[in-house]
Amino acid sequence: MGKENLQYYIHSTLANNCIPVLMKIKTAGFINFKKAYITDRQIFMWLLKEELEIFHCQYEFIYEDEKYIYVFIYNSEPLKAVIGELCDHPILLNNGYSSVEPTIDNYIKIFKHRYMDYAIHKVTFPHELGIFLGYPIHDVEGYINNNGENYLLNGYWKVYDKAADAVKIFQNYQCYRNKAVELILSGKGLSEILI
Question: InterPro entries, per this entry (predicted)?
Answer without folding.
Answer: DUF3793
